User: Fold this.
Amino acid sequence: MNMPAHPMEPFRIKMVERLVSTTREQRAAALQRARYNLFRIPSELVRIDLLTDSGTAAMSDGQWSALLRGDESYAGSRSFYRFEEVVRDLFGFEHVIPTHQGRAAEHLLFSLLLQEGDAVVSNNHFDTTRANIEARGGLAIDCVTDCAYVTDAECPFKGQIDLAKLNDALSRHRVVLGMATLTNNTGGGQPVSLKNLREVAWVLRNRGLPFILDACRFAENAYFIQRRERPDLSIRQIAREMCALADGCIVSAKKDGLANIGGFFACRSAELAEQFKQRLILVEGFPTYGGLAGRDLEAIAVGLEEVVDPAYLEYRVGQVRYLAERLDREGVPIVKPPGGHAVFLDARKFLPGVPPEQFPAQALACALYVEGGVRSCELGSLMFAAEGRPAKLDLVRLAIPRRVYTASHLDCVAESILCLYERRHAIRGLRLVRDVPVLRHFTAELDVVAG
Ligand code: F0G
Assistant:
């Protein structure tokens, strides 16, 4: 049987970071101390950290040297102008406003556009986006295609918005804003096609509603569009084309910005930009730094240029595909086709004996940590349960940090998952012992269900 091929890294390694070794007993004890919440585990006790691809990228020599160019002037920093130029060029929006990370941009934007009872439609709102909408008394409505909920259905654009669901939401709720998450993190890092973005933009425009992209993983989305829809366009052209359909974007630069911190809001409307800046000054900082250091702006500017390199994207998405194919070949239930930033395990199929009320994805993520020291993230009923109802899917996300791990690390992850798969009947469900009202997956406490 042929092994799936791992793409060759289009870089070599100049600096390394030591990985710690822990014993199974140490990890089991750490998990108990952390109350079965992987966000509470010290990173020192994690061997391979796939909790998130956010802020965890390895920076390039180009980025590290750009840090030294950082201009730390409070106002009018030249690092800001450099950052602004790169964002304008890639995204095509005139007004560019930095924030310290993505959720700050979300918070500021929603505080301007949302009143209590207003609704926001999207394919899927990610956790912080949803929470920021709900914190304003708003309603976050998911309109993703039904295909997204069938984990083994190989639709090419599983992140796309279902137009019937969109129209239904528009007719039944006071929708004030349309969004699309590129790629759709919640549903498996799945792309949205240009065709779908065009249709959604048309529906929203007819209603006079703004369309804002949540474009954290814009380059990965553009890669899939190039592969599956528009091979005639370059990654840069696709990025411009996606943005041309929208009125603005919010971006966490901790993903495809290849930076460890940062974000921004960019838009066409001078009026909206001005209102945004006024709020920004109150909570984030002056508009030429927005809560970041000048050097951070430099790192993002270089990162945004590097992320659209076709050789980088080929490697990046190929690495995710490599891990996915290894697991799929052995019958491990995953979301198919693999997305851009992570492999997602279908925990309900992996652990058929653990009902959704017992958080199968969290139970699986915890078991994987004890098995191999691999930290992953639950995207399921712990993160997304609404009014006591389980989420539609219980997934474990193995998010691959950018440019950090090699093929042998991923082999090690695969081995741990395969061992666990053999012993899956021994994995028990979890119950909440301390719940919290907002974004509970970050701080909730759990315990193993007796039995
Ligand atoms: N939108 C999406 C689609 C995201 O995935 C995230 C963060 C944000 C917005 C918020 O950005 O973290 O810079 O404030 N997602 C991370 C994750 C945390 O693990 O997927 P932020």
Observations:
- Residues 24-53+309-448 form a domain with the Aspartate Aminotransferase, domain 1 fold (CATH 3.90.1150.10).
